[in-house]
Amino acid sequence: MIRDKALRFVQELKDQFGKKEMEAEKGLAVELFKLHALFFAMEDEKYGEKLANIVTREELKNRPGNVKEIIRSSYRMLESLEPSLSGVFLDDSFTNIGENSLYKLVVLLERYGLSRTEYQSDGAAAVFFETLIKELLASSKDYDFTPDGLARLMIRALKPTGGSVYDGTAGIANLLVEAHRYAKTEGKDLSVFGQEIHEELYGIGKLNLFVNRILPDRGDLKLGDTIRDPKWLEDGRLMQFDYILMNFPFGLRDWGYEFAVNDPYHRFDFYDLPSKSLGDYSFILHALASLKPEGKAALIVPFGTLVRGAAERKIRSMLIKDDVIESIVFLPNHLFSGTALPVALLLLNKRKPDHKKGKVQIINAEGDYERTRTQKYLTSKHVQKIVETLEAYENKEKYSRIVKIDEIAENNWDLNPTLYFIHVELDTEFGKIVFNKKKYENEAENLVHIGDIAEVIRGVNLPLRRETENGDGELFPVIQLRDIENGEIRFDSIDQFPVQTRDLQRVTARPGDILVSSRGTQKKIAVVPEYDGTILVSHMFIIIRIHSPEEISPEYVKRFLESPAGQYYFEAHQSGSIGTVLTPSDIRSVELPLLPVERQREMIRQLEEADEILRKACEIRKEKYLEAYQKIGIGPFIRPVSK
């Protein structure tokens, strides 16, 4: 009922202001949230009497032309009555809003908002506030929120039913609010603590805690940079908590590396410094340092944190060796608005029970979702399934594996789920296919690593735009991703670049070279044919240069890499935040059957025959369509474009 009322209010708000005016008044939604909190306080026995001495809701509605100054006085009074709200109301947003716009909000909120009785009823103001946030801010590119299903999963995975919970990147504090609600439904009490760097989100988060009756007695939010200036301290040290929930900003470049070098809170002393250009592990290590000795954390992490190399692999290996990673749940992509970023739920436990020690549970929940046209989401059914699997802590074919630390070490501390499931489902041109990794590795004929039969080289780095404009270096044609279509190189479209390289011959495309795209979601593979001149290969490709082409056909290797078995290796070595990023080392480790050359040629001939069948079928299909269009009278207006 309250949610429906909030939806009707939002519609009235949009009708009154119009889309253009709402976009122009950037702080309109924020000022609405503040007014809602003020009206909530006016009906609360703790603040109501003092606020009524300044103005009542009824009087406020009847003060056009002077409402801003009266509201300013009311805000000052509320901040004096509740010091934890100091600075939240009288900020730049309030200064900038026009008198007329503010008065419209007052009238709309009085006319279509909550009644006095509803403000006084348990939880109504919180539901109204939550609905306003979702309707007015959730679709904005300026705000990132943890989706409801993901928030429920994080909380159900931890089950915070007492003590303290902390979120170092709290945003609007929705995770803290949900954790507090969960504890209440279990008949328990929970104290919440948060920090947020974005001033506007911090203000909304404070109001969220206030209307949920958490602030001031059961929790608070502080403003500041969690890495450079953590606010929750005890005796100059990081305060520690029973539970931590964090959905931190992914891939943050300016995260505080210079500060971390001499971090006074010793968060990075035992795990080395995170990558200078990616701050993901700074938040993970901050969370770990903020946990009590028996504490548990639920963190949403980008896929890349679990597979990237260099400094991140070193930190990851130490976390695994220290046995603080309890479970990892790989989740569907497109859970966040406007991005296909794949993410995972990382569960940390400083005191794992005996039956979990020396192991990590890996759950592949990438198929657990419902979807709208543009976004995927977790339902209660999916959350329940994942939580039950976490609780059971046992192997479940194609879904859950309990992996020993020794096995993770053998996989170079990579936590890609593809490496740990015997039966892996792959999306191929033939639909879903199950690839049995273990059976393949144990029973396939004469497997060899590509690194044993070929030289594997990354292409040449292309110059930056300013270097191109300066023209430093000799001009060479360079094969880029766009120059390969349907497995063939389009030599007529190759651009030239000024290239500086010490070993020109090494990165020159030679006939018989296999070019494999090294990044991006679209795989491109081509064999270089005979050609005239010198053409280089860009760093977007890895070059596979067969040692003995008379014994191993480059076309055979290409066809293998395009097969479901080859596709498995692509996915197993995925190491980027979003798309696949292959390294020469990844390609060298790929295993393929080393067959006699005649059997290689036989396989190639059979696949070429299949391709020809498909090509002819497509031509017949096109002819039939054009005939049908002729019959309904639109044929004369359609002309296929000649290539």
TrEMBL record:
SUPFAM superfamilies the UniProt entry points to: DNA methylase specificity domain, S-adenosyl-L-methionine-dependent methyltransferases
Pfam families given in the database record: N6_Mtase
GO biological processes: DNA restriction-modification system; methylation
The organism's place on the tree of life at top rank: Bacteria
GO molecular function: DNA binding; N-methyltransferase activity; site-specific DNA-methyltransferase (adenine-specific) activity
Catalytic activity: a 2'-deoxyadenosine in DNA + S-adenosyl-L-methionine = an N(6)-methyl-2'-deoxyadenosine in DNA + S-adenosyl-L-homocysteine + H(+)
EC number: 2.1.1.72
Name of the protein in question: site-specific DNA-methyltransferase (adenine-specific)
Originating species: Caldibacillus debilis
